Amino acid sequence: MEGALRGAANGGHQARPVILDVDTGIDDMIALLIAATAPELNLRGVTCVAGNVEIQHVARNTGKILHYAGRTDVPVSIGAARPLARRLRTAPETHGPTGTGYIELTGEDRALGTTDYTAIPASRYLGAHVERHPGEMTIVALGPLTNLGAAVSTGVDLAGGTREVVWMGGTLEERGNTTETGEWNACVDPEAAELCLARGAIHRLFPLDATQDVIFTLADFDGLPETQLARIVREAVRFYVDYHRRVDGIDGCFLHDPVTLIAALLRGEVVTETISERLACDTSPDPAVAGSLYRTDDQRRPAVTIATAIDGELMKAELLGRLARAVQPRPSVSQTVGGRRRQ
Q1: Catalytic site residue 129?
Q2: Is residue 60 part of a domain?
């Protein structure tokens, strides 16, 4: 019934089946809210990977956000707790100690018992969907590629068996946000990124070159409705803005993950420039270069379509409009939305 309703809401067109792969920190949280409430998408599942925070925080944050969005029907699969070949690094200074900034979604919550946490690990969950629905599934990876790399390494055909795989990761010309030439998701698990690129498992890429074309200020979120879920979003974004003000000297923040989601699947015309390149990822033991993407002449690698510019004004309006709808009150969950505020 829900699928039919979503199709009707999308003008009679079948909603696009999607799996999100997330390491739920602040911008993942906003992407989840938008994906869970977008009538154009049929959110088939969410797979969790360690990255911004440890896997237990990712799984809890993901389950709670889906619950608050009224989407406890969406299965959550817990995936890799560490990169394929390296020690895990996390980003508490960027996302807060548990991934949601100044408000922590911790503590007992009986309502989480209704969330569909599946016992199937993320790499197998991805493989099962690709096998059962060849050519239909879109995977949007918003964190390190560990789950996708694990799937590829066990023979899952992400390159040919999916409709599309989209990744928010890497940087080409922009300065990196982790090293001089490296972006966070690529730097956390360079081996997984290299494996996926070598096997053609990434079809479209949204690097920092595109996602940093729009800056969100705290004032941008003043138009959200006065709900508890909106309060959670504002407190998370406030932490993000404080971080970017301190580190980057900007009075705002980048929201890489929801920008990628919207540009890839919901409002494609916001992408104003693309290029096609064969890419590789540096897997050197030197942390100063590991995770850096570079162009390669290796003809065995399929080219990746790379977004290099976005219409910032159009993207900002689209994202804030969708987020405002996503945080509208829902009677069935309004009394359970909460969180502990950090000073």
Answers
A1: no
A2: yes
